[in-house]
Amino acid sequence: MFELGLTLVVYLCFVSYWWRRQVAHERRLSAYKVRVHVNGIRGKSTVTRLIAGVLREAGYRTLAKTTGSAAVTINLDGDDVPIARSGPANVKEQQDAIAGWAAVGAEAMVAECMALQPKYQEWAEQMVFQSHIGVITNVREDHQDVMGETLPEIAVSMAHMCPSRGVLITAEPNPELQAVLQREAEKRGSKLIVADPTRVRDDEVARFDYLSFKENIAIGLAVADLLGIDRETAMRGMIKTKGDIGVVRLQRVTLRGKPVIWANLFAVNDRESMMISMDVLEAYCNAQTIKIGILNNRYDRERRAAQFGDVAVKDLHFDWLITFGAYEDLVTQKLLANGFPKDRIVNLGFNVNRTVEQIMDAIAAMIPDGQQAMLVGFVNIHTPQAEMLMEYFEHLKTHTGDTPRVMEGDIGFARRQRFEKAHG
């Protein structure tokens, strides 16, 4: 009997603590005139930054938080403040961040959804953000182990963060998936808005200093429309916004006396995005360009490693393939099974743990004298080898002349062309 009574007291204390914490949290939320919750497979971090830029430029005191390529708070001035974690990422981090923001008197917040499982996405929306505007950037194949095997299933999973009696914005071009999101929004009393990338002009995209997708910019404009912010202000705010660590910038370098175009696509980890990006990169290659792909695999992404062992051969066209990080034997066997030449596969990850200089020597050896190379890193960001490589190129002196820039107009066209071909 004593044990039952003690258990009841502990339970009531916990409920009381939780209730007081939630009441205090919702009081903090009420101070925000605008709350935006951003989800999707690709582009969440970038869209979070773009929307925050729109709001800042319109005069809102705005805070933002990204959790993708790098976990950061974006302060009132638009500067990144890294988030220190003592353990694995946890969705409760969102609530703690909002509590920490209370002192600065912000009136708008934009946050990237960091939950994958539907129940946690729903908890993040209903208990943490209670957003006015939800965003699902796109629906693509990723995290199928927790979000569903098919694209409609993934769409339903992500819609668990749709606001109640609010607005859900997407730039997903597939009408079937738009219909799924429409139904899910209506279940929650919300309105679906499909952002139109054709509203964005090529000359506007050209003003960004990193690879920018018209779909992402269109979402920022859709948010501006909802809030009565004029287009000029919205575009100015987005252009001012600092790019995420994962955005793509191309860099011309000389590596051991050989010309190389370095394309950091480590943040690109789904098949469609990788194919679109490679379509665009073709514009920087000639018939003699040696194409070298780096499959960078994290130890906790075995499924993705296996998937890209197929994608790298069946959908992409590389002359050489390098493995970084984990699962090198698994990926190598996949590549060989798909018919890629054994003598064109080079393991430089955990199997051998080369220094950055040894990695550079190996890459340079793949490039014949008198030819240039396109070096492309993809699949994941965080492995020791990828981080060494990124740091190396960050500090390497570039060629004299302009660094090449990829125009989003090409990407928008490539994506629409691929979609139209697939769907008639």
Instruction: Please report the first level of CATH classification, the CATH class of the largest domain.
Output: Alpha Beta
| Strand residue percentage | 15-25%
Could you tell me how far the N terminus lies from the C terminus, measured between alpha carbons in angstroms? 70 Å
Poorly predicted spans:
398-424
For the largest beta sheet, what order do the strands appear in spatially? 4-3-2-5-1-6-7-8
Helix and strand string, N-terminal first? HEHEEEHEHEHHEHEHHHEEHEHEHEHEHH
3D shape: globular
Rg over C-alpha atoms, rounded to the nearest angstrom:
23 Å
**Residue-averaged pLDDT, rounded?**
86
Separate helix tally: 16
Number of domains: 2
Share of residues in helices: 40-55%
Q: From the coordinates shown, what is the CATH architecture of the largest domain?
A: 3-Layer(aba) Sandwich
Question: How do you describe this structure in short?
Answer:
The chain has helices at residues 2-29, 44-57, 92-101, 118-129, 144-147, 151-158, 175-187, 202-205, 214-227, 231-240, 271-281, 302-314, 328-337, 356-365, 384-395, 408-423; strands spanning 34-39, 62-66, 72-74, 80-82, 108-112, 133-136, 167-170, 191-194, 250-255, 258-265, 290-297, 320-325, 345-347, 373-378.
Q: Care to describe what's here?
A:
It contains 16 helices and 14 strands. The protein has 424 residues and is α/β, with parallel strands linked by helices. It folds into 2 domains: 26-240, UDP-N-acetylmuramoyl-L-alanine:D-glutamate ligase, CATH 3.40.1190; 250-404, Protein-Tyrosine Phosphatase, Chain A (Alpha-Beta Complex). The strands form 2 sheets. An 8-stranded mixed β-sheet has the order 4-3-2-5-1-6-7-8, with helices on both faces. A 6-stranded mixed β-sheet has the order 9-10-14-11-12-13, with helices on both faces. Helix 2 (44-57) packs across helix 10 (231-240). The model is unreliable at 398-424 (pLDDT under 50).
